[in-house]
């Protein structure tokens, strides 16, 4: 009897051990994030919850400490785009309005952020209530405050602006600032996020998918003259910082703003509200700087559609020009670490 009881107990113990081993082998491992240092409002399923901020260091050498993780940043974009569009100032009825969309593509240099951030007070204070500005920006300092400058957000911004604008009256001004390649592709980068690059034909196709009649497209990048042919069209003004086979200048960690950004945005538009005259003034100023620095001339390009000049004049007729707006870099060069040799 004792031997039978011993066998039964051993059998029961074996069954229990097998169940325990099977459960533990099949259970998924749980990976927890580091304890949060602070909390930043980011998107959740309900767009209402706070998401802990990662402690930094795990997302790549250049990813900022105490920031949302790359996944959290990407997940937040739809909400951030909705918020940015909702914050546009109201349209002024009875006259053409100007809708400015700024796209600062490269998150690795602050010159592009500085231009994007300067455009907001420039157009609001200089050109008044008929000017409305939306900024897309790649920069470690604005991951929770500005929507990313990405292909998807560019399309979402244009779709939102299309609903806010009167397409037969209002003017879209798209200002793009980034690095450009010899193949006429703009650098779109916020490492390590997987962002698509933006070529000249890509940009033309994106714009063509929307009902914007009046357009001003400014491409501030090296080799940006390659954007002129695909963007050329009636009722469109295209301005570029360089011709198709030339570099433009002024980026880098030692600069606060690019040559073209300084000459057209800061200097010329604070002297004249006429975008075409401002381009002529900026081109002359850039030429002088390049001669002084013994640089190969960038030769900025301009392409004027047959109807856009008259529509811009009609917009200017309906505004009261404000005072000049001084340029203060959002991130001064003196506050940034020097680039390694």
Can you tell me about this structure?
It is built from nine helices and ten strands. It is an alpha/beta fold and 341 residues long. It has a single domain (70-335), classed as Rossmann fold. A six-stranded mixed beta sheet has the order 4-3-5-8-9-10, with helices on both faces. A two-stranded antiparallel sheet has the order 1-2. A two-stranded antiparallel sheet has the order 6-7. Helix 3 links the parallel strand 3 (98-104) and strand 4. The longest helix is centred in the N-terminal third of the chain and has 25 residues, at 2-26. The radius of gyration is 26 Å and the shape is globular. The model is unreliable at 1-60 and 336-341 (pLDDT under 50).
Task: Give short descriptive properties of this protein.
Rossmann fold; six-stranded mixed β-sheet; globular; 9 helices; 10 strands; disordered N terminus; 341 residues; alpha/beta; 14% strand; disordered C terminus; two-stranded antiparallel ribbon
Question: Whole-Å distance between the termini?
Answer: 86 Å
- Mean model confidence by pLDDT: 84
- What proportion of the residues form beta strands (DSSP E)? 5-15%
Total beta-strand segments? 10
Helix content: 25-40%
What is the domain tally? 1
Q: What order do the strands of the largest sheet run in, or round the barrel if closed?
A: 4-3-5-8-9-10
Give a quick precis of the structure.
The chain is 37% helix and 14% strand.
Topology:
Elements: H1 2-26, E1 39-41, E2 50-52, H2 70-86, E3 98-104, H3 110-127, E4 131-137, H4 151-164, E5 171-177, E6 185-186, E7 198-199, H5 200-208, E8 214-220, H6 228-231, E9 236-240, H7 259-268, H8 275-292, E10 301-304, H9 308-317
Parallel strand pairs: 3-4, 3-5, 5-8, 8-9
Antiparallel strand pairs: 1-2, 6-7, 9-10
